[in-house]
Design a protein that fits this description.
By secondary structure, this protein is an alpha/beta fold. The chain has two domains: 113 residues, Rossmann fold, CATH 3.40.50; 175 residues, Rossmann fold (3-Layer(aba) Sandwich). Helix content is 30%, strand content 15%. It is built from ten helices and twelve strands. The strands form two sheets. A seven-stranded parallel sheet has the order 8-7-6-9-10-11-12, sandwiched between helices. Strands 2-1-3-4-5 form a five-stranded parallel sheet, with helices on one face. Helix 1 packs across helix 10 and helix 4 crosses helix 6. It starts with a strand and ends in a 14-residue tail after the last helix.
């Protein structure tokens, strides 16, 4: 019986080979590993049934037998936007691979906003003693727009810091460590009650330009906006205007419409906006974490079971 042909097309291919070996599945696949700068040969592309890769492209047209794609990221909008992605192919994302690292980076941003360590470090360069005040996070309200796996893990950690957590979810069911879960239509209630508004929503047609001037005006003047989701969620010009006019206190942005962010973009020079170079969910062991998701799905694939983290194309995530 022939083995399913699987192509792992990325520089970190060894992590995926090792994950299959650990689960005892390595000999169940015809596995081919290629680095990102290599081209998938036509004869291999024609036989490929499983693809593990980073980005879509016209090469998908050369894969008539393709049945399953394991994407490397939680957001898959480039895949869904590709005209070469067949509707017959199951697309799985890396949902859950950011569950630990991203909440920690978001907490780092919250500490940056409330603890004066950056100005203290700058003072030290000048051997200058300046008394500064640290603002407690305890008692502050964190509003999370998009209470998925990352949002729920962050809620657990934020609650341990004695923060009050509220937020939105497509299906507003009660969640641990969240005082109240609202539906998307009640977003303005979350905006008006939060000291920090965090964007964790997926990038879809419904969420593009979600944060505009009307929603920024719904926030507290002393509130901060944090975006660790997708750059397209925000109307850039509206955010700049809101920060400059003190409609809101400021913003921490980890994602942008164009990355790297062009040097001429006004985000760089707008006082009150912190540009973070997509620190988000990256961490030294991330390839291993995504490889474990792939290996579990590989087992399911062989057993004929439903795969995990399958993308709902209608919803966009």
């Amino acid at each position: 019986m022939s083995k399913p042909v699987c192509v792992v097309w990325m520089n970190e291919a060894k992590a995926y080979e090792q994950a299959l070996t650990r689960t005892g599945l390595a000999d169940r696949f015809e596995l081919h590993s290629l680095t990102n700068d290599q081209t998938i040969p036509d004869d291999l592309a024609e036989r490929t049934e499983i693809l593990v890769g980073r980005r879509p492209g016209s090469y998908l047209k050369r894969m008539p037998r393709l049945r399953w794609i394991q994407a490397m990221t939680a957001g898959v909008d480039p895949w869904l936007a590709s005209p070469h992605l067949s509707t017959e192919v199951t697309l799985c994302c890396a949902r859950g691979s950011h569950r630990i690292s991203m909440p920690e980076n978001i907490l780092g941003a919250l500490f940056h906003l409330t603890k004066p360590y950056m100005p203290i470090a700058l003072d030290q360069r000048e051997s200058r003693w300046t008394k500064r005040m640290s603002v407690p996070l305890a008692g502050k309200t964190l509003g999370i727009l998009g209470l998925g796996a990352v949002g729920q893990e962050l809620a657990r950690k934020a609650t341990a810091l004695e923060m009050r957590v509220i937020g939105t979810k497509r299906t507003p069911v009660p969640l641990p460590n969240v005082e109240r879960v609202f539906g998307h239509k009640q977003t303005d209630e979350v905006l008006g009650a939060s000291d920090f508004v965090l964007l964790l929503m997926p990038s879809t047609a419904e969420t593009e330009n979600f944060i505009n001037m009307d929603r920024l005006r719904a926030m507290k003047p002393a509130a901060w906006l944090l975006n660790f989701a997708r750059g397209a969620l925000i109307v850039d010009a509206d955010l700049i205007a809101a920060v400059q006019s003190k409609t809101i206190a400021g913003a921490v942005l980890d994602v942008f419409r164009q990355e790297p962010l062009p040097a001429t973009h006004p985000f760089w020079t707008t006082e009150g906006i912190l540009v973070v170079p997509h620190l988000g969910g990256g961490h030294p062991e991330r390839a291993t974490a995504v490889a474990e998701i792939f290996a579990d799905n590989a087992r399911r694939f062989l057993a004929g079971e439903p795969l995990n983290a399958v993308v709902d194309r209608a919803r966009g995530y």
